[in-house]
Amino acid sequence: MKEIELKYGCNPNQKPSRIYMEDGSELPVAVLNGKPGYINFLDAFNGWQLVKELKEATGLPAAASFKHVSPAGAAVGLPLDETLAKIYWVDDLGSLSPLACAYARARGADRMSSFGDFIALSDVCDEDTARLIKREVSDGVIAPGYTDGALKLLKEKKKGAYNVIQMDASYVPAALEKKQVYGITFEQGRNELEVNDGLLSQVVTENKEIPEGALRDMKIALITLKYTQSNSVCYVKDGQAIGIGAGQQSRIHCTRLAGSKADNWFLRQSPQVMGLDFLEGLGRADRDNAIDVYMGEEYMDVLADGAWEKIFRVKPPVFTREEKRAWLDQMQGVTLGSDAFFPFSDNIERAKKSGVKYIVQPGGSVRDDAVIDCCNRYHMVMAFTGIRLFHH
Length: 392
Hints:
Blueprint: E1 3-6, E2 17-20, E3 29-33, H1 38-58, E4 62-67, E5 70-76, H2 82-87, H3 98-108, H4 111-114, E6 117-121, H5 127-134, E7 138-143, H6 148-155, E8 163-167, E9 176-181, E10 184-189, H7 212-226, E11 232-237, E12 240-246, H8 251-267, H9 271-274, H10 284-295, H11 300-303, H12 321-328, E13 334-338, H13 346-352, E14 356-361, H14 368-377, E15 381-384
Parallel strand pairs: 6-7, 7-8, 13-14, 14-15
Antiparallel strand pairs: 1-2, 3-8, 4-5, 4-6, 9-10, 11-12, 11-13
């Protein structure tokens, strides 16, 4: 197929709309089910690049959960422990394949943002992964292939309208890429930066010890940032992004936003949240919404008389600021990546509150010394890549 006509572009008034190869060649994708739209394809192609590079960098199956052309989550296929399986609502599915674990992690990191996502998978979609996808609210999936059983399950989703895209894994894009803004064509070389150990070798702090797991997490952070709308920062722990801040004009606001998401990921594992007694039959999305409010400052919206009875079997106690801080103080060994340099040490101070131990960023600020000094004060490890990763 040389082109796919789309219903409309970003918005219903933007017609006509299509995707095609400018050189007239065949598209490297096939739509196996559904009718993906303009934004669906933007998410699919950005997500595919991300998971393809994660697989190449780590050797592990990878998954991403995309919303509005930025990842809400990204992860590699490490096993889930009992706690993670429970907070990701997959504890009833039994043992999962590595690819399914990758998507459970990618989806579970920020379930509020992942609601209605477009999924990218690095490997052939198996039945475990399809079963997980089938029961979540999602717009579609892109993968290099699907087992017969997985495709059957996915075609049953959304009354048969679920978007399923197959990507040609051997496709290599042109070295130059173009886009138009206001009728003016922009051209640039593709960002072909390979994220490898060499890129992480310039450690600028007194502490230079980066364990293998942190090295892997640094790669995950950088590859995730490579396909996140800038400014962006990414918190990673144990093979998965746990907080992504995208598209903020201020670096510190980005660090705070992503940090608050990382905090919520860890708070979901607290006894106070794990012990919430929901009404039988309450859907996963409703439980996610209730948890998000319960952990936040508007907790009375779900705890007030007349409100909690619609959500919980037993009214939970208030999760106090002091209790939340005490729990968050246990979060350690987190990795933080940034797509551009940190201009002030306030970013490091905020990162410390979310358990960050390892940092990777381009460096190059006139205040690098102050940022390095702050890291040294907390015995953090920081590597400079020397390369910015803006994405627009």
